[in-house]
Structures
1.
Amino acid sequence: MARIVAGVGTSHTPAIGAAVDNGKTDQPYWQPVFKGYEPARQWMAKTRPDVIVMVYNDHVNAFDLKMIPTFALGCAEEFTIADEGWGPRPVPVVKGYPELAAHLVQSLVLDEFDMTIVNEMQVDHGLTVPLTLLCGAPAEWPCRVIPLAVNVVQYPAPTGRRCYQLGQAIRRAVESWEEDLTVVVFGTGGMSHQIQGPRAGLTNPAFDKAFLDDLSRDPQRLTGIPPIEYLREAGAEAIELVMWLLMRGALGAKVEEVYRFYHIPASSTAVGNIILESR
């Protein structure tokens, strides 16, 4: 059967993608970020998943404010790269897995999660930056990707508990697929940051590090964090961390932390990366 072997939590800061695309990774500002991700890239090359379930949020590219699904699953054969205002990133087209994606939708809906089915959409930095950070700059991505877009842009966002429960349902769905596949789930976004208003530039390392600690030690505490606490303690955009809880829910009860990286600043954002293997 298919099995979820690990989860990756990572920021998806757009400036990271721009640093790669414009040859700035060796600049003193960016060197610590890319050096910190080297062990994660090595882990990814060793693990060689067949499929990534990429939990991310669209940044008003695939969806605009006329239509905002809470949970949208990409079921297309491929996903082209969105033009976010300065041209599409020069990265490969993302290859999907429509058969497995359709199976996930059916299983999740029968498991009482009302998924939006998306048969055509473009993907933005929320999805491509994590691929770049873990896979480098290949001529084509090394595995197929099933995008799972979560609304954390327009109020109300789903709670961390609901995202965790969806992750658990995804695990059940994957394990009911008979093909022998190795699957890794990414939870992306965050960590603490705010990009507008009087608190623009806010970061909270204590909040972030406690969150990283409890992904393996006490995820139930994290599922109880209300949306207002993310905003108050870690900035408006820290609500993206509920997508890390979706990843964590897909890993089962026992996990082993195999890598962690945390760094400030990266474009006024706290950058985090964690790898958890399912046990």
Note: Strands lie at 3-10, 51-56, 71-74, 78-79, 94-95, 116-118, 144-150, 182-188, 255-263, 271-278.
2.
Amino acid sequence: MRTLPFIMLAWLCLSVNGQERTELPAEQEREELILRDHYAFSYSVVYELSSFVAYNLTKEAALKSEEVKGKNDEDEGVSTGTADDKDYKKSGYAMGQLIPAENFAHEPETADKLFLMSNIAPMNPTFYTKSWKNIEKLFRAWTIQGEIDLYIVAGPILADAPFGTFGDSKVSIPERYYKAVLDLKNERAVGFVFKNSYAQNIFYKYAMSIDELEEITGIDFFVNLEDTQEGKIEKHYAKEDWDWEAAINVYGE
């Protein structure tokens, strides 16, 4: 159990190594926002989960994607502490990676950090292996086929609370998960909401505008965009703007 008080870490810097953090949503109250070189996350001690992770998926990373192995451990960078992998034993839930480590196979230090508990959330095992991982494959195919970068935010929908819990750390069990995807080059974006159970791999069934996703999650996405551009991109979603067969075209499956 955590005994430290609630903390929100105030980060005034919106860039790392001179790069603007386009992927970042607005800071969440009573959470700790941590910026790392290739990703960021906002950790909630109330739920022992990150409410969001945010990262930039490049074509280079997608082309070098491969399976990565690592050790799940507490994230010592979170001041309140995180859940422990022991919490998940006999829980019946997979230790789902919010950011897949294989996306950073070319950056071993970052890939190692993605096994820390700040990047882990409880997922139905079938949902994790058959849905969550497959839509990440679709995102990689989009970057390769379109020769674009994608800015991605993902996490559990904590607005659905209260939740059931498990383990000594009282890890919350989310009912739904979301993803928000921005293609800045083509000024388009799409959001997704999934129940924490099996989802069909017909992913446009779960797609919506970012404005709609913000209403569901209570999170303000892509706040570092210029206001006019943000408003234009986030209100629009059209199924035909995206190639839903890209994973088949790129990977043959």
Note: The CA atoms of residues 216 and 231 lie 17 Å apart.
